């Protein structure tokens, strides 16, 4: 994919359309940002100024967007004064928004069984990707989404009716919006939530992968976003099941457009180890590049 540049990243005074609160200080914010909405891709993010007296912007992954209506949605959890200020936004407020930024997921049509794994505030890019795949009529995608959280999920869980081979049918908590689009989903948590798989989302994924028919194996690719321990576990699944995996990294960042290099991370390239900026070189990277040591590569 081409790198973002000045003609694809837009500075907009986005208008707040809605702010919905969920348990554990989680919020879903809908913004009218037509230029961003027209170009957003799953895995891209926006850099928001949370308040006039807080100059440092906050990067938030895009959860959903409607290019025709000109809006985007983001999910955030209060961490620090910036996001606390953002949680006080009201409908009609204006928020300085920079985006869409970053290299998103690149789904492989040769592997239509896209296994989407999201953890915590890393769920949004995978929700977005699931919706895009469900709407793509050019390829017969068969996405499956697994989400994990140790706090209540930022949506009202439903009961999954779409079958998933190899999983306990009693563990049927799902993301209902994806279920309505024909995307099977299941939820995982160690917090004892009703209907959830009692473990990490990567363990749930491992159970599903282990139960796959042999002729389906070569049709699967992994896509994930979440905390680093989770992404490392996803890379381990990719190694153990010999599958390609794309990881969307979450990092603190300052400028968000590649100028400061404050979000640089070490990755393995064809030319050897290198530092790459999560904001514009990523946030999506191949699992082999992020965790080369798991694949027997030099780091």
N-to-C order of helices and strands: EEHEEEHEEHEEEHEHEHEEEEH
Total tally of structural domains: 2
Tell me what portion of residues adopts beta-strand conformation. 25-35%
Q: What best-fitting shape do the alpha-carbon axes yield?
A: globular
**Integer average pLDDT:** 93
Radius of gyration: 18 Å
Report the span from N to C terminus.
Answer: 24 Å
- CATH names the topology of the largest domain as Rossmann fold
Say how many strands there are.
16
Q: Pick out the low-confidence regions.
A: 1-6
Q: How does the major sheet shape up?
A: 6 strands, antiparallel, barrel
CATH superfamily of the largest domain: Nucleotide-binding domain of ferredoxin-NADP reductase (FNR) module
The CATH class of the largest domain is Alpha Beta
Number of helices: 7
Helix content: 10-25%
Q: Pairing-aware structural class of the strands and helices?
A: alpha+beta
Strand numbers in spatial order across the main sheet: 1-2-5-4-3-6
CATH 2nd-level architecture of the largest domain: 3-Layer(aba) Sandwich
């Amino acid at each position: 994919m081409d790198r973002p540049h000045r003609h694809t990243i837009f500075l907009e005074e986005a208008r707040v359309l809605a702010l919905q609160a969920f348990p554990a200080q989680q919020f879903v914010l809908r913004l009218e940002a037509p230029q961003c909405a027209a170009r957003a891709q799953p895995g891209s993010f926006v850099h928001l100024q949370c308040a006039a007296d807080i100059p440092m912007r906050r990067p938030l992954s895009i959860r959903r967007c409607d290019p025709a209506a000109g809006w985007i949605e983001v999910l955030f959890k209060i961490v620090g004064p910036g996001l606390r200020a953002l949680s006080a936004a009201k409908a009609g407020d204006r928020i300085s928004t920079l985006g869409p930024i970053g290299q998103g997921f690149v789904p492989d049509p040769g592997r239509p069984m896209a296994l989407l794994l999201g953890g915590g505030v890393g769920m949004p890019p995978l929700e977005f990707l699931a919706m895009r795949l469900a709407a793509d009529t050019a390829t017969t995608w068969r996405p499956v989404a697994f989400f994990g959280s140790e706090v209540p999920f930022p949506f009202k869980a439903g009961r999954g009716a779409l079958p998933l081979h190899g999983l306990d049918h009693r563990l049927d908590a799902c993301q209902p919006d994806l279920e309505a689009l024909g995307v099977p989903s299941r939820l995982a948590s160690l917090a004892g939530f009703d209907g959830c798989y009692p473990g990490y989302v990567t363990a749930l994924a491992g159970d599903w992968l282990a139960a796959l028919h042999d002729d389906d194996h070569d049709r699967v690719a992994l896509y994930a976003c979440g905390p680093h321990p989770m992404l490392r576990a996803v890379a381990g699944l990719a190694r153990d099941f010999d599958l390609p995996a794309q990881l969307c990294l979450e990092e603190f960042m300052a400028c968000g457009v590649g100028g400061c290099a404050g979000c640089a991370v070490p990755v393995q390239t064809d030319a050897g180890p290198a530092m790459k900026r999560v904001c514009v070189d990523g946030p999506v990277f191949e699992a082999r590049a992020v965790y080369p040591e798991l694949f027997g590569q030099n780091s």
